[in-house]
Design goal:
The chain is α+β, with helices and mostly antiparallel strands. It contains 8 helices and 11 strands. 29% of the residues lie in helices and 27% in strands. The structure holds cytidine-5'-monophosphate. The site of cytidine-5'-monophosphate has 11 residues, from strand 3 and helix 5.
């Protein structure tokens, strides 16, 4: 779960830096079922974690500083979700400790894989332990929602059927699967996809009991495909292998396979046909977040 990578740091708070995973998510489907008065959209979705993602090295500090050792280019610390998560937890708990955070980024920005949200959730979960706060999961979920609609599910820590803006979560176990995920070479702006006048905002609500594997579609997909031809192109490649979909507001697209070797063969086939530069990866579905035990 956590792996000490160094013990040569002098601190009265913690003698080691540990590495914490921040897994990617897929939206197996994503229906827009309404809109709140504040403009946020009401969704129904199934979130599934992948055994692939970012990692964060985090060490507690015995002063109150929050330091990003790997700042994202062009992003001020106060806008970085990891920094904001740590500061929010500090303010909420009154904790006088701080943190050094090193982010090893594998997940694309604007990819629909929940990278930034997952990083923020991992900061909340890891610091809840490193700062000995013992805050309940419910509180961390509420803090997470203040950072973004996708953060609560990572704190929830299980595959889930999501409603509301993504914060009403019910455990849901999809069938085991391996996924081929392709990463088109572009960043999608989530607000602009949700703001598109052509977006379907009245997909009928479904009851969880009616969900079957393969159910549904992604209402954001036709909007992203119309704006970004590469999303439609990459989706077309995957559709030869099954019921391919976009995740979140894109740009990433995915298709499920029963066996990992099938997903790997499909990725090799796509690269043979369309070029070795096609970015993507194969990952297994994961039903529980690796840091699930970090909150009760
Ligand atoms: O929650 P997050 O900050 O990731 O959302 C980014 C933007 O996407 C929001 O500011 C909003 O414009 C749009 N959004 C939405 N409905 C949601 C989630 C996001 O309209 N349920």
């Amino acid at each position: 779960m956590t792996r000490p990578v160094s013990s040569a740091v002098s601190s009265s708070v913690s003698s080691s830096v540990s590495t914490y995973p921040a897994p990617a998510k897929l939206n197996l489907f994503l229906h827009v079922v309404g809109r709140r008065r504040d403009g946020y959209h009401l969704l129904q979705s199934v979130f599934r974690f992948l055994d692939y993602g970012d990692t964060l090295e985090i060490q507690a500090r015995d002063d109150a500083g929050i330091r990003l050792l790997t700042p994202l280019p062009g992003v001020a610390p106060e806008q970085d979700l990891c920094w904001r998560a740590a500061r929010l937890l500090q303010q909420h708990s009154g904790c006088r400790l701080g943190a050094d955070i090193r982010l090893n980024k594998r997940l694309p920005l604007g990819g629909g894989l929940g990278g930034g949200s997952s990083d923020a959730a991992t900061v909340l979960l890891a610091l809840n332990r490193l700062w000995h706060l013992d805050l309940p999961r419910k509180t961390l979920r509420e803090l997470g929602l203040r950072l973004g609609a996708d953060v609560p599910v990572f704190v929830f820590g299980r595959s889930a059927f999501a409603e509301g803006v993504g914060e009403i979560l019910t455990p849901w176990l999809p069938a085991p699967a391996s996924y081929l995920v392709l990463i088109p070479p572009l960043h999608v702006s989530t607000p602009s996809i949700f703001a598109d006048p052509a977006l379907t905002r009245n997909t009928p609500s479904v009851r969880i009991a009616a969900l079957l594997d393969g159910y549904g579609h992604n209402d954001l997909e036709p909007i992203a495909c119309a704006r970004y031809p590469e999303v439609a192109e990459y989706l077309g490649w995957l559709k030869l292998y099954g019921d391919a979909r976009m995740t979140g507001s894109g740009a990433c697209v995915f298709v499920a396979f029963p066996e990992r070797v099938q997903a790997e063969a499909a990725l090799a086939g796509i690269r043979a046909e369309h070029g070795s530069q096609v970015d993507g990866f194969v990952a297994d579905g994961m039903d529980q977040h690796p840091l699930h035990a970090f909150a009760d």
